Amino acid sequence: MEFDDEIDARGLNCPLPILRTKKKLADLTSGQVLKVQTTDPGAPRDFEMFARQTGHVLLSQSDSGKESTFFLQKK
Q1: How buried is 28 (Cβ within 10 angstroms: 0-12 exposed, 13-18 middle, 19+ buried)?
Q2: Average pLDDT of 52-74?
């Protein structure tokens, strides 16, 4: 998937991946896509809730068991 910016949040635990995502999305324009990689085991639930609460679109998520990758589109 094509993306406009990315965050490597591997090794960081909640709430840091979400906080960094929120900050980076603020720098993007509407419609741009952000890729986020994290090893936080709670990230899939956190990113789903974050997208619902903020209105950003969770385009895709994949989980290899040790690492998760998310693509979010700014509202």
Answers
A1: middle
A2: 96
